[in-house]
Amino acid sequence: MRNATMNTSAGPDEQASPTATIRPEEAAHFGKLAAQWWDPKGSSAMLHRLNPVRLRFIRDAIDAHFGADSRHVRPLAGRRALDVGCGAGLLCEPLARLGAAVTGVDAAAENIAAASAHAAAGGLSIDYRCGEIGALGLSGYDLVTSMEVIEHVADKPAFIAALVQTLAPDGLMVLSTPNRTAQSKWLMIEAAERIGMVPRGTHHWDDFITPAELAILLQDAGLQVGQPMGIAWSPMKGLHLSDDLALNYILTVRHA
Predict the structure, then answer these.
(1) Taking a C-beta distance cutoff of 8 angstroms, is the pair 87, 42 a contact?
(2) I need a labelling partner for 34 at 20 to 30 A (CA). Which of 65, 66, 134, 216 fits?
(3) What residues have CB less than 8 Å from 54, skipping those under 6 apart?
(4) What is the pLDDT of residues 160-216, one digit of tens each?
(5) Which of 51, 44, 4, 1 is nearest to 241 (CA)?
């Protein structure tokens, strides 16, 4: 369940350059999936099932953080939103429809091309950029999201530091990622990848991060971490928000 990746850059002698956070092979892997990203029955089918669950959490978090009316169809009107690791725009487009001026960042040029074409076809104006998040000089965003990305980065503290630089002082960040448990290893890798629900090679279980580990990294970066909520799966409900964090979890973050 991967949203996307960002590019790596910066040579060893470029001391002023940001730390590269994404492995090039990850960007290549997800770039190859770009053509099917918007096909709900294609290689990104699991993301299409996951996206409404994430959006439900994000909408509740927006209403709580900004004091928005839950009945308002455009709670992000007048605000700026950034999705880091945006893939072909599965989350960027709903955020734009919620009223935000949206920027999407991804490593793979193929994903940015697919995202731009799909947004244009839908009449949406979204600023898509290809590159390493720490090198783009982005800042002042009211909402920063990064869904199923941190488990793919090579340097998690550096990635979090780059996210912090993009967040406005009173902004809201939302992160989601798989938990490193026996359940996630079995369901997301042994089962989902083996039967083709997720492209093979998408996940590396050793790179998953637990809620406690992530909380420490975020707190060390000067952030206040909200109570995580699980994204669980059952035969009856499919993917759904839950108190069970064993498979996947999502949480809010803000400046302390």
Answers:
(1) no
(2) 134
(3) 91, 147, 176, 231, 250
(4) 999 999 999 999 999 999 999 998 887 777 666 665 566 665 667 888 999 999 999
(5) 51
Q: 207-236: per-residue pLDDT in tens?
A: 899 999 999 999 999 999 999 999 998 999
Structure tokens at 30: 């997800």
Instruction: List, as residue ranges, the binding site for S-adenosyl-L-methionine.
Output: 54, 85, 106, 147
Quickly list H helices, the chain: 24-31, 45-66, 92-97, 109-121, 156-166, 182-184, 211-220
Contacts of 213 (CB under 8 A, 6+ apart): none
Residue 230 is encoded by which pair of tokens?
């699980």
Which residues is 230 bridged to in the sheet?
242, 249
For tokens 């939302």, name the residue: 174
| pLDDT tens digits for range 63-86 | 999 999 999 999 999 999 999 999
CA distance 60 to 21: 30
Report the candidate in 210, 206, 178, 176 with the shortest Cα–Cα distance to residue 192: 178
Distance (Å, whole) CA 217 – CA 230: 19
- Kindly report the pTM of this predicted structure: 0.88
| CATH numeric code, 24-255 | 3.40.50.150
- Domain residue spans of the chain: 24-255
Q: Across the strands, what pairs with 175?
A: 146, 251
Bind-site residues = 54, 85, 106, 147
Under 8 Å between Cβ of 6 and 105: yes
